Amino acid sequence: MVHIVVSEAEARDIVAHSHTVVLIFTAAHCGPSQVLVELLREESSRRLPIRVRVVFVDVASCGRFADEHEVAVTPVALGFLDGVVKYRMEGAIPATLIRICESLSLCDEASQMSGRARGPMKTFDMLADLTDPAGDVSDLSAILLAIAKDIDPQSRLLCENVETDDHLYNRWRLSIKGVEVKCDLHFKRHKEHYQSLRIQNSREFEERFHERIASLEAKRVEEKLVKLEAADTTAKKEVNLPKVTTVKKEE
Questions:
Q1: Residue predicted with more confidence, 51 or 26
Q2: Are 168 and 183 in contact (CB under 8 A)?
Q3: CA 242 to CA 77: how far, in whole Å?
Q4: Nearest to residue 171, comparing CAs of 152, 194, 192?
Q5: 0.70 cut: is pTM over it?
Q6: What is the CATH superfamily name and number for domain 2-114?
């Protein structure tokens, strides 16, 4: 979401109450600043991650805030994560700004997962990568069986597919310590991923399943961050993009 503010108080409030936000200092007399504003409003804003807000502020109305962050030229973009500057960029390159937004979005996702039990919504996000509309669930089957064997080495897994014209159901039955645990995955035809997953009869199995999925998701996010940073480094070497600085928080 692209937003333009006119007061320093509003800018500070947005930074203080946003998990992820990119604050762009611009100036009315600065040509590159105006070009960046128009490009993001008309084109690039459609590609910005929905987790990240992009806010334009005029240095003339936010002078003290700009001085605090040593903004001597415009445009300058500051990427905030939970109120702390994580990225700084000087220049008017929309592609670079979008990469900063993508990095912030991934950082936000990773920080939200750290030390937090993941619920069904996040689990479903990760399951989309373990399944497909054609019904290939081999990765998910392997995870389910591995978790079951962690609880009971004698666990067994049976899986059956039930197909109709519009739906595909994968049904797993696991025998864990003599208890039949049911896992039902429901696809709807012509959709990109599953519709629902239900686990019954074992709270321990369900909790371990969500923990395993959260671990896989955290690993995936870290891999994305590494690739994104590598791509950013390569791009800057190839086309001499403005320097993007990762600001480390002081101990």
A1: 26
A2: no
A3: 11
A4: 194
A5: no
A6: Glutaredoxin (3.40.30.10)
